[in-house]
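fwd from M.: "can u put these together and see what the complex looks like"

so here's what she sent:
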Amino acid sequence: MTISTLSDWTGEVGTVTIGATKADGGTRSGTVTIGGERDLAFIGNPPTGNRPLIAYELCDDPSLWPAPVIRFLGDRASDPAEWARFAAGEYRPDLIRLYLTSTRKRGFSAFAAITTTVENILQATGLPLIIEGSNDPELDSEVFRRIGEAGEGERLLIGTAEAGRYRSIAASAMAFGHLVIAQSPIDINLAKQLNILLREIGLPHDRIVIDPYTGALGYGFEYSYSVMERIRTAALKGDDDLAMPMISSAIDSLTVKEVREADPSASDRTSVAWELYAMLPATVAGASIVCVRHPSTIQPLKAAIEALWSPPGGGA
Amino acid sequence: MPTVTFLPGFRKTELPSGSTILQAAQQAGIHMNVVCGGLGKCGKCTVYVKSGRYDFDREKYGKFFTPEELEAGACLACQTSVLGDVRVLIPEESIVQEQKILIDVMGTTTELNPAVWKYALRLSPPSLDDPSPDLTRLLWGIEKSGGPNEGDIYAPLEVIRRIPRVLRESGWRVTATVVLVPGGYRLVDIERGDTTPACYGAAVDLGTTTIVVFIRNLIDGSIMGVASNYNRQISCGEDILSRVTFARKGGLKKLQALAAESINAAITEAANNAGIDRDHIYEVVVAGNTIMTHILMGIDPAYMIEEPYVPVVRRYLTAAASRAGLEVGENSGLFIFPAVSDFIGGDIIADILASGMAEQEDISLLIDIGTNFEVVLGNRDWMFACAGAAGPALEGGEVLFGMRANAGAIEQISLDLETFTPAYRTIQHTKPKGICGSGLIDLLAELLRACIIDRTGRINTAIEHERIRSGRQVPEFVVAWKGETGIGKDIVITENDVKALIMSKASILAACRTLMKQAGITHAEIARIYFSGAFGNYISKENAITIGLIPEVPVERIFPIGNGAIEGANLVLLNRRKKRFLDEIARKIAYIELNAEPSFMDEYTGSCFLPHTDLSLFPTVEEMLEKCRLRRGVP
Amino acid sequence: MALKALDIYKLLPKKNCKECGEPTCLTFAMKLASGKVKPEDCPYLDENVREILGASTRPPVQRVKLGVGERSFAVGDEIVQFRHEKTFFHEPGIMTAVSDLMDPDSIQAVVADVRDHLLVRIGLDLRLNGIAVWSASGSPDAFATAVEAVEAVAELPEVLMAEDPAVQEAGLAVCGNYRPLIHAATGDQYREMCALAVKHGCPLAIRAPDLDALAGLSGLCTAEGVSHLVLDLTSPSLHDMLNQATAVRQQAITRTAPALGYPVFLDTRPCGLPDAALICGVLKYGSVLVADPLSEASRKALLVLRQNIYTDPQKPIQITPGIYRVGSPGPDAPVLLTVNFSLTYFTLQGYLEASGTDSFMLIVDTEGLSVLTSVAAGKLSETLVRDSLKEFAVPDLVKHRTLIIPGYAAPLSGKIEDETGWKVLVGPRDAADIAEFLEKEWT
Ligand code: SF4
Ligand code: FES
């Protein structure tokens, strides 16, 4: 076949490895590597780089979590370790992403609990972990220090650095050997700026995963989709400050009107559809990690990613 | 007491022995550069002592000078005490130009081709042999003196009425004045005797806030007088939009009268200073923004500020000056610069003319900065222009201790990159009261170099230093301690100030980049950047580039043109041949509406970073910042 | 490749004669570069230049229209590979499949459902587009009967999926006047299929084992007089569909393989992952998508995704300015000001609803610009706020005089207070923090 895709790209997305096994000084049962693409997502025979991965999201304070998930999980949602064990065992995501939502309550001061929660999750699953800390500059330095310390050696991916508050999280990542999610509000320039800021305070590019912020389907998703495409093409054109893998999570998917108001009998199906129809496009736009909250989304999403990844004859 | 004589002007002053030369200069009313405030740190107050007894520590301050300079008597004025009579040469670099409103004695040379001629005539009285009428006699006289053909000169009734008396009372020795207007030659005055040397014109910059007037001698082109003054329309609204609103509510007449009044006042002041009669001003050339010139001509500007934003007139306008209420010679001409759109007015056309960019093959970028900014990109074949709002930050507005370029404003500042100690210079060398635009640009660049702010303008509060503190709401940096200021409190720059400045500079840079993109031009292809506007002359080119206010080009390609509007008006006044060229310029310009340009917002966010998100656009700045970071070590 | 304004300008006569309706040749060049005028509008271009300009400004993907009447739709006319480069112009048509093995009643039920299904979002009607009739039986009669069943219920655009020319002809005999898409010509029977397409004036889908063969076939079909082609890239492999559709789009817009400058047809059934295939089809260059009937959840998500992707990224969707209520606010409820950029509106509305605070949203007209942009562009100003308060009679709605403005509008707070006399509270920058903000500040 002579007519094929035109791949005259010169750049390459950097690779990032998350998690550490015993051999690397951690306790994970395996590690995952993302990035490395030299073309658009899924393009090429075989595609370049690494297959996009699925992270399953959970939290330590379910009162701020979408209702359809809590309904689906029942009691399991009250214990993050149990939650993680269940999701990892039954649904087989590639990573677990824990939100320390407890830190977002007003007047939070239970810093010791952070250490315990992180340790418990580390024990509950052997999957590589993503940990989301506080989003209050007042708490950040203590929270991220705790996370960093509790997960020392595990090569966690921790979030979320923003242009307004990136120093504490970067400091923790540098001190304890972790990776950082750098989030900017749906804008390629802002994404790049944050990466430069992080580089300038000493966090190397291979420790950064870009989160371009993802709007829910129907609520600005198209902006995120295009920003991801732009970031990816910029990287392929050789812009080193944008050549990091991306993580995408449409965190509002399960609270949008369409899902909230869905008929109870269709609640799960609607939840899955809303997550699938945002996260599969995110992988096509170039995201290396896509995140879901409804356990039932994992299987169809995984099947779709595999079908997109495998050239015919390459096995599914 | 010793006497200090300043060369080259021989200005003298007496003061007690032991005083510094700097003090002597201040006493003599000479404004010297004292960037470091007279601490002997900046080396900007260089003088050469030519003779007399004085004391200066050559060992300590020798590093500022070359051996040749020391040989020639170089000293730092602030560190040299006078012990007896001395003669001191102040090199031009050490003198601060007068601040206030920018009045620039034009640098551009042009041929002298005014549109006004005066003819001193000795006519023979009529007789029975020679009974031709007075007017014919006069016009014949003009023709014989080398003027236009008798048949080509139009004489208005008011002038004709005066002819018989003036001719006879003067014993047939008169001076006739002829002006070339678009319709042809026009006899505008007849006077007794020979008044040919009294031939003047006025160039006017009609700005929204200020008005500047130059009176020029049209015989030799020399400057007779200069005056400036606030636009009295300010009483009807601070900014341009409120003026239009005022005009809409039936206030057009009043605004027109105020515009004329403001110009008249400035003309009168300049004429009085020069000791000339306003009636001898035969032509007035006005450059102003589109709304201002519409108002001056009494044309309703209301439709310009609503979609689709069309001005009533685009091409140049002429009329008798008296019809606009200008108090100059009764029949004198008035010439109004053409405009491109409501946003690109005659002031910008004047900028373009003054810069000379419309005559060059190389591509130039012209930037006029005020609360609103205009940018023009192009050469003699094509031009793109756009306009937008930069916000008042760069003029000192919306910045906590920002101020206009008045006495007491810090207009230049540098930081010691180790100790963060500022060295600054204020306008008129009084104690600092605030910081003006050029000072803010310096400050931003220095804060960045010192790694006190990151590229988004956030102050790094992790640095422990007395000048960096958390402030009431946001972090701030102390520029001057209470004791050293003229306002009794610390002068600071807050993180919000820095952000406002970044947003302002970003809109300007984004506008430049949008035009460049539209034309497909890279930084390297820009042969010249012209800077016009209030602070254009005082701004540090390096720092303007460091913060990304303008695209990076080698600094020698940057030319401040000061007040381009008044310069352009002067050029047209002195050389009438430029008039036709103005319409040509105006026609060549393609106006780009930034709000309709989808890439503008992208350029804007890209520019909200110091200097820009695409670091490769500012290679030397990057190199410099890299060094600064290395020196400080990674925090 | 697209030419820049200045490149075009260099080719123009530079007479500035205004005959094209533009003030200068340069403005004409700018408009030509952005496709707002045609080269023909300037009478002074020589043939050569017109050719160059025409070739570089004509859309590289052929426009093709399916169906007639109200529900007909056009695809193609695309000019970019990524939507952020400009926009995608024509949404793919989603064609629900029925087979001629189904009994007419079931067919009609499907058709009626497609006809009536409607989702209204942001003031726009989102619909499925048409029916693909699949010849599973191979019998011309059965096919004709199925097509008749479809026709009996609704005038919807159709795809007639029958590769046997005889079967195809039977279907066309029923609905050939209504511009169905003929599916599909192959190397073996393209002459007959082309003849049918010419006879009925219908667009024709073509299918070949690989892209080279497809380009060849496309040439053969145009030689037969069919210029409204659609390229069938269906494959059991999702990976292949994505790769081939990407290749076709790249080749078309770079004009390296003009024979591939046609819209793409994808049948999502063979790959066994209907949702995934539809998603890829919407994202990556499908123009006609065939699918089995979907669950309501998938259907909604699909229509919304398609709307999202085909929204012009340069023209934000706007909300009509005015007062909007969240819950049932009373005279003490907070008034939150924001801009009429739809995303901003929906985001704030979502969080306000979630916060459970009854409130008023005052939406002012910033021409669809976001808060940050409209502040920067001077579109959001104190006078606009003042006029909007008045226009929407906000003082009559509430007893208090406090206005909550978005965090990014903070620089305007003083001016708004001066201009309106209202007290201004600067809200959070991120709508997600609104609940917390209200809890703290609004008691
Ligand atoms: S018609 Fe042609 S020559 Fe005349 S102005 Fe338009 S582009 Fe220029
Ligand atoms: S060295 Fe004299 S003023 Fe700075």
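replying to her w this: The two ends of chain B are 55 Å apart (CA to CA).
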